[in-house]
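ok so I'm stuck.
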Amino acid sequence: MPKRPTPRAEHLRLALAQEAARIMAEHGISDFLLAKRKAADRFGVADGAALPKNVEIEAALEQYQRLFDGDGHAESLRAQRDAALKAMRQLREFEPRLVGPVLTGTATRHAQVQLHLFTDTAESVTLKMLEMGLAHEVTEKRVRMDSARVLVLPGLRFELEAQPIETTVFPADGIRQSPVSPVDGRPMRRASASEVEALLAAS
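replied:
not stuck anymore, here's the structure
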């Protein structure tokens, strides 16, 4: 039978999760592992087993945003979702889906809007950007589909209404399977433009 963590270990784990969440919120870090390491360094913790899970840090981040930046967080999240919806409407031919912290509601004010696009000709997205006159940067992103499969996919990064937007371009049939979430290891939640509209209406 596995040993149950002691109250002291649980307290340390919670403190590390809260510190990692603070670092993410205040310094614009989106990488959970980097935030954990910075929190561990600050607390002088060298034992990797003491580090919190990503889902625990996400929960601490939600709590931090409610306690310390309630109105500011709501305002920045609405601006991010509004920019996401405008981008999705402009890129509608690629069946865009919103993913990540802007969808889940844990985005910091520094977070990028993350969109998944679907087409068998990734160059068509670049051509669309040129048609719209949007300055952009061509990128690549590693995406974990399951425990054994990682894809390297093309993408584009641009700004709309002062909001940074990062797109990842999947093959057309990639809409059938979501990649694995870095937070909880489950299939990543994706939202269509109509679902983003509903989120904005509800807020």
